[in-house]
Design a protein that fits this description.
By secondary structure, the chain is α/β, with parallel strands linked by helices. The chain is about 40% helix and about 15% strand. The strands form 6 sheets. The protein has a 7-stranded mixed beta sheet, sandwiched between helices. Strands 22-26-23-25-24-27 form a 6-stranded mixed barrel. Strands 11-10-9-13-14 form a 5-stranded parallel beta sheet. Helix 3 links the parallel strand 7 and strand 8. Helix 13 packs across helix 14 and helix 30 packs antiparallel against helix 33. It is globular. The termini are far apart. The structure holds iron/sulfur cluster. Iron/sulfur cluster binds next to helix 1 and helix 8.
Length: about 950
Amino acid sequence: MPESRNSVQDIWGERTPFRGQGKWPERLDYRVREEPEQWIQSACVLCSNGCGIDIGVKQGRIVGVRGRPIDEVNKGRLGPKGLNGWEANHSPDRLTSPLIRKQGSLHEATWDEAMDLIVRRTRDIRGRYTASAIGFYTTGQLFLEEYYTLGVIGKAGLGTPHMDGNTRLCTATSAAALKETFGSDGQPGCYFDIDETECIVHVGHNISSTDTVLWMRVLDRRRGPNPPKLIVIDPRKTATAKEADIHLAPRLGTNVALLNAILHVIIREQWIDQQFIQEHTVGFEELKKVIAEYPPERGAAISCVPAEQIEAAARLIGEAKSLVCTCLQGVYQSNQATAAAVQVNNINLVRGMIGQPGCGILQMNGQPTAQNTRETGADGDLPGFRNWENEEHIQELAQIWNVDSSIIPHWAPPTHAMQIFRYCETGSIRMLWIQATNPAVSMPNLPRMRKILGNRNLFVVVQDAFMTETAEFADVILPTALWGEKTGCFTNVDRTVHISHKAIDPPGQAKSDLDIFLDFSRRMDFRDKDSQPLIKWRTPEEAFEAWKACSRGRPCNYTGLSYEKLSKGSGIQWPCNDEHPEGEPRPYKSLVFPTDADYCETFGHDLITGGVVSPEKYRANNPRGRAVLKPAKYVPPTEEPDKQYPFFLTTGRLVHHFHTRTKTGRAEKLQAASLDAFVQIAPEDATHLRLRDGDWVRITSRRSSIEVQAAIGEIEPGHIFVPFHFGYWDNPDRARAANELTLFEWDAVSKQPHFKYAAVKLKKVSKPSLSQPKMVELHPEDHPASSMAHLAEQASELAQDVVAGVEKRIKPERAHLADYIGLLDESERRLAKGFEQVRKTHTDEPDVDALCKLFAGWSKEAESMLKSFILKYGERREGEPKRLDKALLVKRSQGGFDMLRDFHDLWLLVNESMMSLIVLEQAARALRDQGLLDTLKHIQDRNERQLTWLKTRINQAAPQVLIVPI
Ligand code: SF4
């Protein structure tokens, strides 16, 4: 029999019920086109569940797959994507040779030509604008070894802070929420908890579509003896919601209000574990205070979930003896994403349900290898969950890579995907290297994205296996090997690491992403401190060993794993080290969390504004191994339905497709099962608009319009749903991509875009008439970013600059650096003048004369210290300090109120200087200009002392002057 079931129709297959605290039975799922000659061990990369899979090979081609019953993740089961998605490997439209854009169109090139061009452009741009003009936008589908290599190249080779991945669109909030609560990324729960728990809560997690095999596990528990209760929070009536004991359908964007109301009832009814809270958490009193403002009635008024349902859900959660909560995009891509995900963590924590069998949190991932981008530093975070604000962590990395620590960008938070694209839009990033992802369909606000990717001054490299909508914008395209055509490891949601062995060769000249990165590093000649090659590995296994060393001592400890061990049977969970040689399913079973200030990955954020908590503040309240309970008040979404745009749009996935269908759209059965986009609409709304199933509807937001067919039912009135998978590569005739409509904005903490709400209007149309939104015209003449003539011209300019010395090269490109040096210089001049004036005014004060003289001297010294940097970077005089000076420090009399006002004015002037210092310090760190950095620190130290003195004098003078006037 060629397949164990028709999984496209029978998505979850037959039930194999089992009891709580039992073992999930095995079930062998398979699908083959021909009898394989051999089976190669792998794991599925079509969602973050990471099912163990064997690849069937015959005569150098993949002919089928089967589940691995030995694997703890899936026990032999596979979903429709796993059973069918492999067909994409043999799609006839694979990219098989590099392409270079010349005079507006793409032409075949050799690897040497393509890589030489990329290296020349990288050197040129870095030379003229620093590495801060280069960005990487990677994926959630490469392998761990590739991400780690990319991370080292970006951070220790180039030193760019602009690295992120499309994981920003799917798992960023998962990581952010785990960091806020537990001090570090890393999943607290595991899939075994599903086997044991009494109660499961899926929040914004349509698990039956997104993680089909994990849903089989839930269903098998639900059909067995002692089934767990199930609560589902989702605005749509999905298959998951239909299975639930309680389904809460909140209005879009109101998760925080609803979760706060659930927490309110749990705390009110004392369904909490006081001892656990006291011994293992901090922040309970603050949480209680905020939660008190959200009784169920208020939660109901905001979320439109009836108060009785909130009470009932809270009771189920509160009375359960064990609890597993999971979240996905309904939380992560919605309003107040991190704040909501953190409230889910809070539910488990106040109940004391973590680290024991049946008690866990699964902050799910969207993409199959997303976990590895977060662990290895390919998404901007530092490898091994290290803290960019902890100097010791930076030194540790510098030691591992044998580089100077200043090359590792750590002067500010890493740049997130949307900010990277914004920099591309403004022209600040001039080279963007995109790997295995398709932002021209997956990013929000596509009209804007097309303009960004088509920016004449942006040099775009795309590394992919297919000609995607994004590749259409590329200056260079590098063809890549897919899963099954290369060896490497990846880690799923519950920290299970799998190895995937190479089963077949890639087509044509396609190469693995690892080989491309290694080639780039070699051609760029990245070196360490001893002039040895920065990247010391050549094979996936060597890269894995290098990564193991980097993970030592960190929460994601891989040191106990090896290719050999991983090739023996099931995937293995990290941490895996001497202490846990077979891996540890529950990293927090000791109830010690990685929150200690010296160990944690972050010092946290304000959940409403995203402002970072300072190291000093965090250290002052060091949680030292206790979890952090962080409350958040509800803040409404920025865009809500109104008269003009009366419907609320949410977007999401379908069971048969993954992301922009680059692979699943090329698997015959998957594509046939879900051919096109549609709009799901409530029957009441359909009646009002006179719509029937299949009618064409134009959906318009403030960004753009699309046209799709109506599918009526199973969604709340006022809401509509459109799947986001469908772009234009296989259907260029109609505007249909959901992200034409979505908002270009992000969550304050995780910086994950808001895909789950946008105000739209609907109109029935007789037939579609909007064609695919126009591509921007792509460099009909030679692209200035890639043309040989332009390169030659730039190379000669660069050579002249180098001859003239680095200063000449930097000056014209650093106009704004000169602005701020000018501002600082002027501020210090004004300060010197100000302190002199105050000294001369208040001569009778015992300390003013001496100290103001000293401070005026410091400011004059600062002016002279800046001279060499003015020569180096230039100086442009700005008017602010002069204007401030004019408005402040007017002629006053001695003592009393006038003196208080003078101190007040000096305080403002010192702060003007401090602002310039803060801004310049960031630039100095990015320029790795230690001399400038030392000078700024020196001036800053003195200014801080001026402020301290002024504050002391103001504190002292204020009550006397204001209360006892003279
Ligand atoms: S559940 Fe995910 S990992 Fe498992 S077979 Fe399906 S797509 Fe692949």
